[in-house]
Amino acid sequence: MWTMRWDVLCIAFAGWFVAYAIQARRRAVLLPPGPRGLPFIGNALHLSLTDSFMQFRQWADCHGPLIYFHTFGREFVVVNDLKMALDLFDQRSGIYATKPRLVMAGELVGKEKTSMVFSKYNALHRKCRRIAHSWMNKQHVREYSWPLQEAASYRLLVSVLDNPANFSEAIRTNAGAVLLKALYGIECLPVDDPNINLSEHVCELTNEAAHPGRWLVDSFPVVRTCPNRHVVPWGHFKRWAAASRETTERLIRGPFNAVKDSMREGSAISCWVADTLLDEAKGAKTVDDIHAAMVAAGTLYAAGIDTTVSAIRMFWLMMVLHPDIQRKAQAEIDAVVGTQRLPTMEDREKLPYLNCIIKEVLRFGTIVPLMPHSLDVDDACTISLRPAIYHNPNTYPSPDEFRPERYLPHSGPVAAFDPEVIGFGLGRRTCVGEHFAQAIMFLNMAHTLAVFDLRPAKDANGVPRPPAVAWRGGHIRCVRVVVPSCPLWRISPFSLLTS
Ligand code: HEM
Asked: Exposed (0-12), middle (13-18) or buried (19+): which is 369, by Cβ within 10 Å?
């Protein structure tokens, strides 16, 4: 009969441990520095469950431009240096174009197949990018988005006038309305639109699903085979994943299927999705093509709202906190555009100071703080950490100050490095929505400055209350201005809108 030989077992374990220690020591010589981890679990206990990128930033201050850490055998390399990030993700973008395996976000919630942002660099992704580019290229955005964006931005001004306390939500509705109309031909409600609420919910779920170190199953894929929570108490992650998957699919499929239904009934109105499905030349012929169009539209819709909303809310906050910068930008607009009309996209090149504000919002707000990529050949996760790059005092002196002047040609010995170069990503996974984002940010900011003075709200005694800000960390850093600023109109928006 088989009996347990404890002596053999102990010798085998000791052998494994010595081999592990020797291998770990050898690898440590080759690997970049990083926080010291424990055997096997690595740095799992160090990772913050809520704000991992601030954690990475602290590590960057201690360990330098390139950091290595691991959790349960999952390896991470964090790139904190501008030149290294350009070398790896731009120059060698061919081998860094894919995404690491994320069991929770990618597989259980299903984002690998329903979102361009999380998909591997494969045939589906390339097809989606081609379609997304046909909608979001410079010329198409100019022709089809600018008019929609201008109209939505006017509506934003009126909505803020009506209900200043609700400005934060109005900014969200504005961004969502343009995307819903352009992509799916859907008119959204002025407040509490179900599609827009759903997109916000999905963004929260995505942030949680993709949070580094949040889910055991990301380190131990085998955990996904465990029974659900009725059998083991920690099996509830499967229910969470299933519910998140269902919600995410509703966002991707709902508006797309509505377009398909209206096409079938012959009542479809022209929009980017309908035009693509109808236009044989654009290639939506096979089931795969139709799926790619659905994923491309759904990703643009989801990715486009949260990023631009975050940037525009950050702009409001900075204007309230820096009245001198606000006055300077208003003076520029008044001098170039006058006070009889609102700025248009054609004015953009003549407003250098406002353009510097947009750059500084992108740097200071760091809307997309970290984006994990991985090598074709292994699944180590390589993260370029924008907060560390954007707050490097060698590149941006006094990095914690909001100073748009730093990008002006004669602001110092040399103008600061343009944060837009890396702000929209690098290499083959760069942001497809950059032209759209630039236009919506410019129009919203220029119109707001032309019409309003943004000031802090006052308390019952008439004392200004500095706005309080809530950050939501994650793959998109979302700002919520809790105590609203109080927009006072300096020029009647109604007189401008009707002229
Ligand atoms: C201020 C606004 C925005 C910022 C800062 C921003 C930033 C980024 C960054 C850094 C990436 C690269 C991620 C990576 O390295 O994997 C990215 C990807 C992406 N962005 Fe944006 N973005 C913005 C607005 C938009 C808008 C308005 C849209 C769509 C309407 C959009 C759609 C996308 C998509 C689809 C991807 C995935 C591209 C791919 O993986 O091939 N973004 N964005």
From this structure: buried
Question: Would you say the CB of residue 116 lies under 6 angstroms from ligand 1?
Answer: yes
pLDDT of 194 reads: 94
Question: Could you tell me which residue, 104 or 375, shows the higher pLDDT?
Answer: 104
Average pLDDT of the segment spanning 288-297 = 94
Residue 437 Cα: closest atom of ligand 1: 27
Closest CA to 487 of 356, 315, 310: 315
For 20-30, write each residue's pLDDT tens digit: 666 666 666 66
Question: Does ligand 1 have an atom closer than 6 angstroms to the CB of 175?
Answer: no
Q: Identify the bridge partners of residue 38 per DSSP, sorted by sequence position.
A: 42
How far does residue 437's CA lie from ligand 1's centre (Å)?
9
- pTM higher than 0.85 for the full model? yes
Domains and their CATH numbers in the chain = 81-498 (1.10.630.10)
pLDDT tens digits, residue range 426-451? 989 999 999 999 999 999 999 999 99
CA of 30 to the centre of ligand 1 (A): 33
Ligand 1 atom having least distance to the Cα of 89: 15
- Which amino acid does the sequence have at 237? F
What span, in angstroms and rounded, lies between the C-alpha atoms of 76 and 112?
20
